[in-house]
Amino acid sequence: KICHIKSNLFFIKNSFEKIIFVSVMADENSYKIILNNEKNLVVELFAKSDFRVENILFLLANLNLLSMNFYELFDDKIYLRFEYSDVLSDEDIQKLYKILEKRALNIGKNEVKKPMIKKDELKFVPEYSKNYVKLSLNTKDSKGLMAFVMSVFAKFNLKLSAAKIQTVRQRTRNTFIFEKTDKLLDFKQELINSLTMEWKCAE
Q: What pLDDT, on a 0 to 100 scale, did the predictor assign at position 110?
């Protein structure tokens, strides 16, 4: 099924061995979490495309997110990799795994405190390609930032195709690739306003 993977970035950013591993895991699992705490915490997630990514980010909002990668695979499945600067104890890893296994699918909607995002920190590129649009965000890092951003995307029912998030020196540089639809283009300004209005909770 590798040839049916939709995300071109997935092939560019990953080794052949990683591509095989992710493909096998996605084919065999509708929902699976893998935790690696060897150097710092890395969370890998395999799920259906309708999974609410903000749930994971909400549950891990107290940790320092360094990077996140999102890839659209095959059979309506997605693969995400979150890397945090935190190193957890073995006991905390076991607790975290149980929490993610039990709550990530059933947590429901959460009120996420809105971070300070300025309009000039967002760049919407509708002409990115024939079938996709790009949204770039370069802003100050803050706890729960990505949980909030993903909750806004969910509110607008946006179909995320790929994402790359990187945090360097308290700044987070993010790229989100969406499937181009008339609805997304029509609600472009409303989307930007929802991301940048100050100190309200995402609905």
A: 58
The number of residues in the chain equals 203
Contact 147, 58 (CB under 8 A): yes
- pTM of the predicted model as reported, rounded to 2 decimal places: 0.81
- Alpha carbons 161 and 75: distance in angstroms, whole number: 13
Phi, psi dihedrals of residue 20, rounded to the nearest 5°: -65, -45
Instruction: Return the SS3 of 74.
Output: coil
> 124: which 2 tokens?
């919407």
At 28 the three-state DSSP class reads helix
Q: What are the tens digits of pLDDT across the range 66-94? A: 999 999 999 999 999 999 999 999 999 99
Q: How many Å apart are CA 121 and CA 115, to the nearest integer?
A: 12
| d(C-alpha 117, C-alpha 200), whole Å | 12
189 burial level (CB within 10 Å; 0-12, 13-18, 19+): exposed
Q: How far apart are CA 40 and CA 18, in angstroms?
A: 19
pLDDT (0 to 100) of residue 108: 58
Measured in degrees and rounded to the nearest 5, phi and psi for residue 191 equal -60, -50
Radius of gyration (C-alpha) of the chain in whole angstroms? 16
The pLDDT of residue 152 is 92
